[in-house]
Design the sequence.
C-alpha cells in the first residue's frame, strides 16, 4: 500500500479497549490499526494516544521547515487533547459530562468548540431525519456501550421509557448567547459520533497554523489530508474489509485536501443467543442497527461532518442511506453483508468520481 495509507475506522470518542470474553463478547478497542504501508517515507511521522484510541500524523516534503518538529508535535497533540478534555463522556470533569449532569432546563453556556460541535450535530440531525442524534446517550448506556461497558439486551419496556428521553429537537441552541437548553432535565448527550472527527479537524488546522502544507492526520480511523504524500501523490487511505482476520484493506481512496470517516458494525459488539448487537444505535428504535450494513465511509471537506454523516447513513441502511447520500451529493461507500457471508458494495456517484480502487 502506498505511503500515507491508513486503515479506516468508525467514529467513537473515548471508547476504551475491552478484551475477548468467554460469553461471546468481542471487542478490539476503538479505532482500527494502520495496515502495512509501503512506498515513500514521510519527512516526519509521529503517534500518540487520544480519545481511547491513538492518532498518527504524517508530514511529507519540506513543509515542516516553518516550525520545529517539537512545535508541530505539540500543536497536533494539544488540539486533540483539548477536544477530548471538552467532549469525552469518560472524563467526569469534561464539559460534556458537566452538561449532562446539568439537570435543568436553564440555558447552559458552552465553549466555542463544544457549541460548534452541537450546532453541526443538530444540522446533521435535521438533514437525516434524526438518524443522527446526540441525545442517544441514555440508549447507548442502557445497551452497555457507554462508560462502564456492561453489555446487555434492553427489554421492550425499558425501550419505551428510553425513547421518551431521546430526541434531537429537545435541545435548543442559542448562537448569540452560545448556550444550549434541555427540554427535560434528564436529557444527556453523546458526542462519540462526531467529536473524534472534530478533533482531527482541529489537529489539521493546528498543523496548517504551524506552516505544514502536506499532511495526513488520523485518529481512531478518522482521517483528514492536505497536499500530497512522500511520493508526490494524493494520500492513499484504506477502508478496511469488515471482519477480516488479520485486518486488511478492502478499498483504497486517494485523498488530497479531503477527510474520510467510517462507521461499522464489526469492531464493538456483543453476542447473546446467536444474535449480534453492535454499538451503532438507531435513535429512532432505541436499539442497535440490524439492517445488513457492515460499514459506511463518507468523504467530505471536514472530518466532523464526514464522521456524523457516516453514522447517520449506517443507521438509515443501504437503500435509504444511499438515496439520501446521492440526493445530497455526498461521496459515500457502503459495504453490505450478504446472506452467504460475503459482501457487496455500493457507492454514490460523488464517491466513484474520487477514483478509488479495490485493494490488491
Sequence:
Amino acid at each position: 500500500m502506498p505511503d500515507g495509507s491508513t486503515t479506516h475506522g468508525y467514529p467513537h470518542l473515548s471508547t476504551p479497549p475491552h478484551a475477548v470474553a468467554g460469553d461471546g463478547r468481542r471487542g478490539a478497542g476503538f479505532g482500527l490499526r494502520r495496515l502495512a504501508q509501503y512506498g515513500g517515507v514521510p519527512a516526519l511521522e509521529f503517534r500518540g494516544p487520544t480519545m481511547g484510541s491513538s492518532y498518527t500524523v504524517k508530514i511529507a516534503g519540506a513543509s515542516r521547515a516553518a516550525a520545529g518538529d517539537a512545535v508541530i508535535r505539540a500543536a497536533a497533540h494539544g488540539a486533540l487533547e483539548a477536544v477530548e478534555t471538552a467532549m469525552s463522556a469518560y472524563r467526569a470533569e469534561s464539559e460534556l459530562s458537566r452538561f449532562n449532569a446539568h439537570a435543568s432546563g436553564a440555558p447552559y453556556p458552552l465553549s466555542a468548540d463544544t457549541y460548534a460541535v452541537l450546532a453541526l450535530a443538530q444540522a446533521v440531525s435535521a438533514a437525516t431525519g434524526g438518524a443522527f442524534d446526540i441525545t442517544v446517550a441514555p440508549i447507548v448506556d442502557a445497551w452497555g456501550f457507554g462508560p462502564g461497558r456492561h453489555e446487555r439486551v434492553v427489554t421492550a419496556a425499558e425501550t419505551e421509557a428510553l425513547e421518551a428521553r431521546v430526541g434531537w429537537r429537545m435541545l435548543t441552541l442559542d448562537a448569540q448567547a452560545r448556550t444550549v437548553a434541555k427540554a427535560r432535565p434528564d436529557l444527556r448527550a453523546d458526542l462519540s459520533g462526531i467529536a473524534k472527527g472534530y478533533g482531527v479537524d482541529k489537529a489539521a488546522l493546528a498543523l496548517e497554523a504551524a506552516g505544514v502544507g502536506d499532511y495526513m492526520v488520523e485518529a481512531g480511523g478518522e482521517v483528514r489530508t492536505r497536499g500530497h504524500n512522500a511520493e508526490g501523490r494524493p494520500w492513499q487511505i484504506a477502508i478496511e474489509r469488515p471482519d477480516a482476520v488479520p485486518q486488511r484493506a478492502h478499498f483504497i481512496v486517494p485523498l488530497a485536501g479531503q477527510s474520510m470517516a467510517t462507521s461499522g458494525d464489526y469492531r464493538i459488539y456483543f453476542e447473546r443467543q446467536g444474535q449480534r448487537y453492535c454499538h451503532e444505535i438507531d435513535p429512532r428504535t432505541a436499539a442497535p442497527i440490524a439492517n445488513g450494513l457492515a460499514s459506511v465511509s463518507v468523504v467530505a471537506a471536514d472530518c466532523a461532518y464526514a464522521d456524523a454523516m457516516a453514522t447517520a447513513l449506517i443507521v438509515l441502511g443501504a437503500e435509504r442511506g444511499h438515496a439520501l447520500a446521492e440526493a445530497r451529493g455526498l461521496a459515500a461507500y457502503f459495504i453490505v453483508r450478504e446472506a452467504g457471508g460475503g459482501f457487496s458494495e455500493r457507492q454514490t456517484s460523488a464517491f466513484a468520481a474520487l477514483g478509488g480502487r479495490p485493494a490488491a
In short: The two ends are 9 Å apart (CA to CA). The first helix runs from residue 69 to 87. The chain is about 30% helix and 25% strand. Residues 14 and 230 are 31 Å apart (CA to CA).
